[in-house]
């Protein structure tokens, strides 16, 4: 397994680069076309979140494995304002960024594992994993 | 930033998205399209997303916005060529693209616009 | 390699080569494997032992043997025994020889055989796993036919228990067929499905919505009373999804939606209904 690869998220262009990177790694580990599309879409939502809510941050892209099944893990982190009410932030339609409010709740449905760690003033760290079927 | 070309065919505008759009390009396309509908007096808009690998909430919102906007400008919008994987992902994401008409491919999109027009008389 | 170890190794190789006949007979007897198969292995091992101990050829032969046995349904123990029984066969020759060198050499050979045995076991499990995966895929392929009913109308007749994975595969295939054939109507017929759980019902629902996003219409036909009951009890919202009692009804509906006029449709439908019983 190669180690995690870190990419910056500072501009709109970076979000596109993150999508392309995630797509190529997802294809490499043999995710189905639908699963590739899901994880790339989730990556796009989460990268945009980092940009809109924290002004920037980074993502680590890592191949993982359960021994039998390969998977793809993405860790998005920023030093932004953080989230005070995580339950509320995870609700469909709740938004503070002027979007549709589907970024967090929607991307959770697109991945197999979703872990969010955040506190006001301490930034946000979101880890998502998609396993090969 | 890349600009998406807008083609004119009769009174229909055709936009074929061939590149991985960043958010700024999405907003630019939205504005360009509204301007062109008015300046060219278009009655229909076809957005071809056959080559688009993902539609996230931002692009999804653009499609809804364009449909609503052009309708206000008296032009009907049809989104054509959505890939199955993209459609499945959109459903999972929770986006229904309300108010957006869709067709399987460009040809069927054109037919749909013609029908809509003849129904209007 | 030290001198005594070298001598020990030479001695065991000598025995291995000179006693080929009795060794092979005994090996075949203990392992239950045909002597011809073992002769090839013996040859390869002998070349490797006499030369630079490069076991690539031996591993190649063992790999083939393990894969073949995995396919033929031998147990893993039967397969590994082919390799491990060589130890016993060689040991009997070493005992007959009675020399210290031969015994020390046997310890060395024994470790080598252990490694080969483990290799056999690993190849065997990998081969078995591959067989299982292939069969699962074949089964999925077999059980997911998407058929064309009419120009612009396709159908998936689903038969048997639906699990989440299978439903997903069927649905993806259906949506892809819509694109490939340019069909604007699809019928998902679940007459042959005895029951559905929440997840499967959700997948069916999502497929209909996804098809709609792509510009196509889906009709679900053949919902059994128990399934209708499940769906309502589970509180799953089927909303504005069109459902029909039978595949024939669904086809008639899709035809009328795509503008096809059926002449004498009533008679046709009676005939089809009669066939159903």
Automatic annotation (TrEMBL), chain A:
UniProt domain Histidine kinase/HSP90-like ATPase: residue ranges: 34-133
Superkingdom as given in the UniProt entry: Bacteria
SMART domains: HATPase_c (SM00387)
TM ranges: none
Alphabetical list of CDD domains matching this protein: HATPase_RsbT-like
InterPro entries in alphabetical order: HATPase_C_sf, HATPase_dom
Name of the protein: Anti-sigma regulatory factor
Biological source species: Microbispora amethystogenes
From TrEMBL, chain B:
PROSITE patterns the record matches: STAS (PS50801)
InterPro entries in the cross-refs: Bact_StressResp_Reg, STAS_dom, STAS_dom_sf
Domain STAS: 2-113
The name this protein goes by in its record: Anti-sigma factor antagonist
Domain of life: Bacteria
Cleaved signal peptide residues: none
Phylogenetic placement of the source organism: Bacteria, Bacillati, Actinomycetota, Actinomycetes, Streptosporangiales
Species this chain originates from: Microbispora amethystogenes
From TrEMBL, chain C:
Coiled-coil residue spans: none
Superkingdom of origin organism: Bacteria
Gene3D superfamilies the record matches: STAS domain (3.30.750.24)
UniProt keyword terms in alphabetical order: Phosphoprotein
Residue intervals of the STAS domain: 143-254
One Pfam family in the UniProt entry: STAS
Classification via PROSITE patterns: STAS
CDD domains: STAS_RsbR_RsbS_like
Ribosomal protein recorded as keyword: no
PANTHER family given in the database record: RSBT ANTAGONIST PROTEIN RSBS-RELATED (PTHR33745), RSBT CO-ANTAGONIST PROTEIN RSBRC (PTHR33745:SF3)
The name this protein goes by in its record: Polyvinylalcohol dehydrogenase
Organism: Microbispora amethystogenes
The gene coding this protein: rsbR
């Amino acid at each position: 397994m190669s180690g995690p690869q870190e990419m910056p998220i500072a501009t709109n262009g970076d979000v596109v680069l993150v999508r392309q990177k995630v797509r190529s790694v997802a294809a490499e580990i043999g995710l189905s076309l639908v699963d590739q599309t899901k994880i790339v879409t989730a990556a796009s939502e989460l990268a945009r979140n980092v940009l809109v809510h924290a002004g920037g941050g980074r993502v680590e892209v890592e191949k993982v494995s359960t021994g039998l099944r390969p998977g793809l893990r993405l860790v998005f982190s920023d030093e932004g304002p953080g989230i005070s009410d995580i339950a509320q932030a995870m609700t469909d339609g709740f938004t503070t960024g002027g979007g549709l409010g589907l970024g967090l709740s929607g991307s959770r449905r697109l991945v197999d594992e979703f872990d969010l760690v955040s506190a006001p003033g301490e930034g946000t760290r979101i880890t998502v994993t998609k396993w090969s079927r | 930033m890349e600009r998406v070309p807008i083609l004119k065919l009769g009174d229909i505008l055709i936009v074929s998205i061939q590149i991985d759009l960043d958010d700024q390009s999405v907003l630019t396309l939205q504005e360009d399209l509204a301007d062109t509908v008015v300046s060219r007096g278009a009655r229909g808009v076809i957005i071809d997303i056959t080559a688009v690998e993902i539609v996230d909430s931002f692009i999804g919102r653009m499609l809804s916005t364009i449909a609503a906007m052009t309708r206000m400008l008296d032009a009907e919008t049809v989104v054509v060529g959505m890939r199955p994987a993209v459609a499945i992902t959109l459903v999972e994401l929770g986006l229904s693209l309300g108010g957006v008409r869709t067709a399987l491919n460009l040809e069927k999109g054109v037919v749909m616009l013609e029908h809509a027009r003849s129904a209007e008389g | 390699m030290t001198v005594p170890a070298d001598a020990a190794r030479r001695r065991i190789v000598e025995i291995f080569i000179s006693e080929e006949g009795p060794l092979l007979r005994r090996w075949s007897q203990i392992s239950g494997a045909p002597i011809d198969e073992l002769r090839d292995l013996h040859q390869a091992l002998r070349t490797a032992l006499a030369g630079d101990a490069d076991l690539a050829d031996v591993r190649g032969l063992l790999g083939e043997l393990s894969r073949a046995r995995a396919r033929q349904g031998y147990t893993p123990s039967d397969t590994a025994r082919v390799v491990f029984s060589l130890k016993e066969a060689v040991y009997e020759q070493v005992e007959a020889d009675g020399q210290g060198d031969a015994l020390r050499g046997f310890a060395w050979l024994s470790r080598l055989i252990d490694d080969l045995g483990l290799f056999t076991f690993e190849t065997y499990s990998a081969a078995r796993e591959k067989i299982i995966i292939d069969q699962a895929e074949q089964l999925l392929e077999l059980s997911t036919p998407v058929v064309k009913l009419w120009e612009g109308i396709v159908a998936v007749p689903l038969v048997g228990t639906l699990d989440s994975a299978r439903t997903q595969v069927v649905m993806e295939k259906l949506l892809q067929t819509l694109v490939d054939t340019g069909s604007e109507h699809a019928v998902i017929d679940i007459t042959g499905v005895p029951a559905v759980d929440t997840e499967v019902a959700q997948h069916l629902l999502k497929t209909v919505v996804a098809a709609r996003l792509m510009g196509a219409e889906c009709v679900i036909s053949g919902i059994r009373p128990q399934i209708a009951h499940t769906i309502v009890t589970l509180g799953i919202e089927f909303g504005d999804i069109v459902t029909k009692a039978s595949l024939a009804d669904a086809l008639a509906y899709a035809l009328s939606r795509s503008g096809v006029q059926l002449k004498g449709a009533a008679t046709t439908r009676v005939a089809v209904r009669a066939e159903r019983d």
